[in-house]
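=== RUN LOG ===
request id: a7f3
mode: sequence -> structure
chains: 1
length: 518
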Amino acid sequence: MSDKNNNSSMAKDPGINDFGLDYEIMIGCEIHCELLTKTKAFCACENKYGGMPNTRVCPVCLGLPGAMPIVSREYVEFGVIAGMALDCEINRFTKFDRKHYFYPDLVKGYQITQYDIPLCRDGLVRINIAPPSKPPVWKEVRIERIHLEEDVGKSLHIEDAHSYIDYNRSGVPLIEIVSKPDMKSPEEASAFMQTLREILRYIGVTDGNLEEGSMRCDANINVIIHDGGQEYRTPISEIKNMNSFKWIRDACRYEANRQIAEFVAKRDAGEDLSFNPGYKNTMGWDEAKGETVVQRTKNSFIDYRFVVEPDIKPFYLSDEFISAAKAKVGERPQEKRDRFKAEFGLSDFDATTLTTERELAEWFEKAAAKSTDPKKVANWVVSEVLAAVNEKNTTLSKALAELKVTPGSLAELVNCISSKTITSKQAKDVFTCMLETGKSPSAIIEEKGMKRVSDLAVIAAVVDEVFAENPGAVADFRAGKTNVAAWLVGQVMKKSRGQADPDAAARLVREKLGGADD
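=== RESULT ===
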């Protein structure tokens, strides 16, 4: 489905006051994403979050005179992997540049980045714009470029009215993903970042930890308004440094409202409504107040004095380098979902739930490979395994590693149900014991004497005992109370400690009641 068709089918956001105007929102995102390389971008300092301030630094990332940057091979490789995952073209010849501006956390007075020849260009991301619980509706968002750059330090504003700078983050390797202004609603902008985070975490180039700032979003938003036969464009606002999907949605919604209201006020006051393409607001999002706040305005292009980075030579990427990076992309989340649905017959819900994290998808797939009923394995993972994992209150990968139930033991449990060795109800008890002890299902079944009895003669003997002990119930059945039959079956299951085959027990009870319809 084309973007045009997608956009025309989307209802307008009920949270935006349109004042009766015909309008279209335009949003483009710049996503800054920290990479999981072992070292920083241009030095050997450890690339790790936190630590005592200014302890993970060296002359290179502090920009001391005479210190020379050296490009990390892993840094470039991760950039190419990200570009491949987002269907980008890779520039085989590329270079680094210096972007000059002055801010306390930019220790060198310039940032090493890429300007006119980014590593990646012309990519594409498909986002699902359908409401929750509805079938997917796909929209394509174009990626203009992905370029490499280093992160800057962190300003710390303390309550005693002092500010401090921690340069541990200075030189941490980033990619900046710049989209086209293809998103038409705050929800689409939020879905875009969620989709990017999911893909980039899946391929292992970032941990995507929003709380730690591993991914941050700058959203550029303005509104095209059709009024009185004329088209007007509101000035672009860039909302900086959002690290929450909710923030992106709420900030873009507020800003669209603000821009539309400002247009109406100017129109009604007879003010100039012409669009100045050089004017741009830089905004922050105040979550507590629920509003955007102007940080600065740009009346003309800021001269960052981009120059080629003189200390790093331009370089070529070989076919072998690019091919090796491409091989590390692997199966992306949506590709895995599509395969799970086709291969295992999973529902959209189960396939989506099982592929939200790569570790979970791989855990499920190992269990499915050893089971005679992968669909039933999926049900158990979604309902029971995830419940056990969530109780651990830690990361998914750590929780799965600590879980005493393995993919193999879960497959064995499901196979025991499928072969009617135990009932589904008994399986819940076995699973609980597996979580506590780590023992195999077969060992637990043997220890607890839970193996299902299928011998009709043995079950018939139990039925006879139940009938002998409950003559009143039998009389009630013959008097027309047919629901008593189910109660008698329950008594058989109870007397056999749940081991009797329930289908066989029900059949024998009916037969003993004279074949009457229960």
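=== NOTES ===
DSSP finds 17 helices and 17 strands in the chain.
The longest strand covers residues 22-34.
=== END ===
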